[in-house]
Structures are given as structure tokens and as C-alpha cells.
Amino acid sequence: MSKSLKVVLVGLPGSGKSSFGRQLAHELRFPYLDLDQQIEEKSQMKISEIFSVHGEGKFRELETEMLSELLDRDESFVLAAGGGAPCFNDNMDLINQKSVSVYLDVPLSTISKRLGTSKVQSRPMFFNLDQGEITLKLKSLLAERDFYYNQAKIKLSGDDFSAELLMYELISQLKN
Fold first, then answer.
1. N or C: at which end does the chain have fewer Cβ atoms within 10 angstroms?
2. Exposure pattern of 120-135 as b/e (b: 16+ CB <10 Å)?
3. Is residue 102 a contact partner of residue 87, using CB atoms and an 8 Å limit?
4. What does the pLDDT read at residue 1?
């Protein structure tokens, strides 16, 4: 009997969940899923629209529903969770019960550079912020969310880690 393996990546916006998630999924030969994209497809609204029309509370409700639905599937995948997803509605407990959670703990200076002015336009949370304001916003988010992120089963720290390193960590986790 084969059991499905779900890997859920958590961390701050800009920590590399999407790009690293795609790389890891490719290495594992698993589908790659993005929680926000899944919400947008199901609701047929952009995340920014959900926030502006229905508010953050409704978005967090949809986020928890979609997370639960995905984690209940009988298939393996790599999922990039939105930066706030682990911090609401006991989502981190759900993630840890039904998957191998991985915290991408990337230095704020690296994330701040990644979120430089060119990429900020696609991220409503950082829209119209300069580099200093982006760094302050990231520090604030980390202070609020670090408690949840640190509950992940695996923590990868630094600004240069590989899918191979994570696969080694996953194998260690699965053996335990």
C-alpha cells in the first residue's frame, strides 16, 4: 500500500516558496500547487479582489477550506502556502497533521532584495512601498508569524538551499 506524501512550504512572502516549490516538485516528480492559485481558481476571483470585496476574514476562511480540501486528497504534491496561511484558524496544526511542513527561513535582507521595486507590483501587501518600508513590513510580519513558522517539521535556514538538501531532510523525517 503506497501512502501519499504532501510537502507544504511555509515562510514569509518572498522566501522562495513558489520557485523552490516548483524545483522540489520537479525533483520528486510530484505536482506543484500554489494555495493562492487554488483559491483564485475555485472562487474565480483574484486574491486582491477577495480582500477588497469580502475582507481578510473571508479570505482566511476560503484559505482554510482550500487547505483542508487539498490536504485531504489522496495524492502526493508540493504545496506553497501563502505567507499568512499557517497563522490563522489552526492551519499550522492541520498542515503538521497531514503533511511534512517545511519552513524556508530566509534572511530578511535577502527577501527584501527579492521584493525590490520591480516585483512589488504583483504583491498587494508591498504595493507602493520603498525598500526601507519593505524591510520594516517584513520585520513586522516575521515578528507576528515566526511562532507559527517555527512549528514546521523541517526548517531550512539561509539564502541558499537546494532541493537535494530538502530531499535528504524529507527522507530522514519519513524514516522517523
1. N
2. beebebbeebeeeebb
3. no
4. 34
List the one residue out of 172, 170, 176 whose CA is nearest residue 5.
170
Residue 119 has a pLDDT of 58
Which neighbouring-strand residues pair with 156? Answer: 104
Q: Which residues of the chain have pLDDT under 50?
A: 1
Strand 100-105 to 154-157 pairing: parallel
For residue 6, what pLDDT is reported? Answer: 96
Residue 125 has a pLDDT of: 76
H or E stretch covering 69: helix 56-71
Give me the residue spans of the domains in the chain.
Answer: 6-169
Kindly list the distances between the CA atom of residue 67 and the CA atoms of 4, 27, 85, 135, in Å, as whole numbers in the listed order: 16, 23, 9, 28
Quick: pLDDT tens for 31-65: 999 999 999 999 999 998 998 899 899 999 999 99
- Terminal Cα distance for the chain, rounded: 19
* Superfamily classification of domain 6-169: P-loop containing nucleotide triphosphate hydrolases (3.40.50.300)
User: What DSSP letter does each residue of 93-138 carry, written as one string?
Assistant: HHHHHHSEEEEEE--HHHHHHHT-HHHHTT-GGGTT--HHHHHHHH
